[in-house]
Queue: 3 jobs
Job 1
Amino acid sequence: MIPKNTLCLWYDRDALEAATFYAATFPDSPVGAIHRAPGEFPSGKEGDVLTVDFTVFGMPCMGLNGGPAFKHSEAFSFQVATDDQEETDRYWNAIVGNGGQESECGWCKDKWGLSWQITPRVLTEAFNSPDRAVAKRAFDAMMTMRKIDVATIEAAVRG
């Protein structure tokens, strides 16, 4: 069944490789149908992988091998809520360790340039605290980090 709404992600020519990586890294992230081009197109030839249907954490996606014309930017990112440091480390290290790069405040990019926010729930909960001092301490701690350190955020929450 074709979903009503699918997120289309543009890749140069590595949509299948990206989808396979996401499926191996994240739960509820299978690779679905692989569609091959029925004819020549600007960045490929007949028989090349044109699109790949896949899911990331239950979200339906389609990878389009559209060529080098468009690049991913931080204007779009997947935000992954993690339960603890182990889960945070696992996802962060998988993305960065597979040719990706670290950024600030829990953000990183995969090797295809797609942005990810690996965000422990404790950080989001602190930001939403009715005690604005707690939120500020957690925010200030986060601003010094690349990958989020759960113990440091918890210490900031406690004051």
Note: The mean pLDDT is 97.
Job 2
Amino acid sequence: MTRTKTLATSLLGLAAAALLALGAGSGATAAPSISHGTDASTVSSDSASDGSTADYWTPERMKDAVSGDVLATKALTRAHAAVGLADLPVSPEELFPALGRAVTIEGQKPTSTTAPSAVDRKANAGEAPVSHIGKVFFTLGGVNYVCSGNSVASANQSTVSTAGHCVNEGPGAFASNFTFVPAYLDGAAPYGKWTAKALYTTSQWSSSGNMQYDTGFAVMNTLNGQRLSGVVGASGVQFNAARGLAYKSFGYPAASPFTGESLKSCSGTAGNDPYNPQYNTQGIACNMTGGSSGGPWFIGTSSSGYQNSVNSYGYGSNSTTMYGPYWGTVIQGTYQTASTAS
């Protein structure tokens, strides 16, 4: 950010600002179910299996999918409107709660010997495709939207991480037609199109759109008799890590000036959001736009590190900072529920 704001100024002017979130949730008719997760947190989930979903996402529909920043901005505005100045944290302890016990889950290497179909990498000016990082496609109100996602280590070997607003409106209904396309490049799906059987997010997101918990997970169906991580691998994950770490984030920004057709990345040391510290989020220098939401943040300088957050939001169409939620005990509980689901 190049301009300093007071917290009060930010709160009073946020609704009028061109606030950009980097993806969107969508709707479904089924009501979410609630189950208990780690440390008395709750998890909201929804069945998402649809046998025709993969066929629905033709190369043309994938290319034409809209980055859902308008819908996500509405979720951010609703979340902001629900917070009054008197409700804001007033001490460092309240702003940034004490860290829980650090938890690390190791990654999983692919076991499949099946090679992906050929992908032309000449058009990729940012990053070469990464097997476990891909695009997320879903539908809301008859409109097709796009986010980013990542295969993460899990007991079911079938779990994808993304932003909460890429699986649920926050608050609102869950996505339909949810599909993950790993290593996407210019319409190609070299590892296939993986459809979701269930979607998960924190109840704090699904019930109130709380930006502090803007993370979601999808459990994918098998494809050709194989599980996701066995084909593309899976990133290790870490929860309750120290704040202020160095990260490399990835995503498929689709809003101008990007096209969403190739993988991009940003690197930087995380700092707290100075405008809305109640979100407890951290930001790194980054100009990725709508469509990159849900893309993974890795501790360190490469996609081989532990995932520790996701792309969530920025301020304005020319934002130079990407913010992501702090992965603490509540998000860990949602991950555990999703990653052990059958």
Note: Confidence is low (pLDDT under 50) at residues 1-20, 24-41, 85-98, 118-125.
Job 3
Amino acid sequence: MKIPTGWVFTHIVRCDGKSIIHQNASVDCDFVGALNSWRIDFTYADTSSRTYHTFRGRTHTECKIDPMRNNAPQELPHYGKACAHLVVNGVQRVSQCHHITK
């Protein structure tokens, strides 16, 4: 997947069944990335890939070293997937998803 030059995007999920205990995503960018506005959104989808909840992140215009976004623990109503999306200048550039299964 293409992301802006100089950017690194990671997403971590720890869960027990449908209980997400810990989830975070981070982005690291160089000077080129610092010129853009960006945010990290979290979404949850069922096994048919229908998104049922989105947590939109705060928009940033700076690029600090390893800016990280944590999401609160979640009790999911469905098995499916938990995703993090990097949005740059209002355009979703990359997503990373983890499948939450039995």
Note: The longest strand covers residues 19-29.
